[in-house]
Amino acid sequence: MARKETAADAANPGRLKQIALTYKMTRKADSKIGLVLAAVGIVTLGVFLAIGFLIGHPVYLGILGLLLAFLAMAIVFGRRAERAAFGQMEGQPGAAAAVLDNMKRGWTTTPAVAMNRSQDVVHRAVGKPGIVLIAEGNPNRVKGLLAAEKKKMARIVADVPVHDILVGKGEGQVELKKLRTTMLKLPRVLTGPQVTATNDRLRALGDLMSNMPLPKGPMPKGMRMPRGGPKAR
Hints:
By secondary structure, this protein is α+β, with helices and mostly antiparallel strands. The protein folds into two domains: 16-89, no CATH class; 95-211, no CATH class. It is built from seven helices and four strands, in the order H-H-H-H-E-E-E-H-E-H-H. It has helices at 7-29, 33-55, 58-89, 95-101, 139-156, 179-184, 192-211, and strands at 108-115, 121-127, 130-136, 162-167. It has a four-stranded mixed beta sheet with strand order 1-2-3-4, with helices on both faces. Strand 3, helix 5 and strand 4 form a beta-alpha-beta unit. Helix 1 packs across helix 3 and helix 2 (33-55) runs antiparallel to helix 3 (58-89). The longest helix has 32 residues, at 58-89. The model is unreliable at 1-5 and 207-233 (pLDDT under 50). Pfam families: DUF4191.
């Protein structure tokens, strides 16, 4: 009787295919990746074999060295693959949003909360450090978007700290590869319930703005807002 295919069996080909695809993509940006991985594996295994012969247990140390060699190769491969991915994304529209999408639990991210015709964009992330506005695009143009979004946040959640980060390689900017680390280093000042309450208030604002009937053309002079609409603060 044929053995039924398990979920693990079905997942293995997919994982191997994903690793192979990642390796090919990394090799395009890092042509020495194969040599580096081979050197790491050989050196790690060689060191443990040498120790094994010295103490009289080459088999045990050889097996341990083989396992640690694969582990070391996996760590190096992961880091170089991540570096290559950031290098390919650098300067591309929406690159910061891709990084934010992979943030750990505890963060709620909303891409493109503000944008202009030149594709300068501001993303928003909410976590225990408060609200973080991440801007990418031309530094001169995107500052206006950031300032407008910070004013909006000050009106809606005045009691929550608002941080702003400009992604780029210029002075005062944060490189794409350092964005996640920079956000994780921000001081945590909110509790879990406060983060949830902040997200609820921002989500309610988004629903209100999306459902509000707005005129397609310029608003006529003297026109009054319908009753039940948002009051001016």
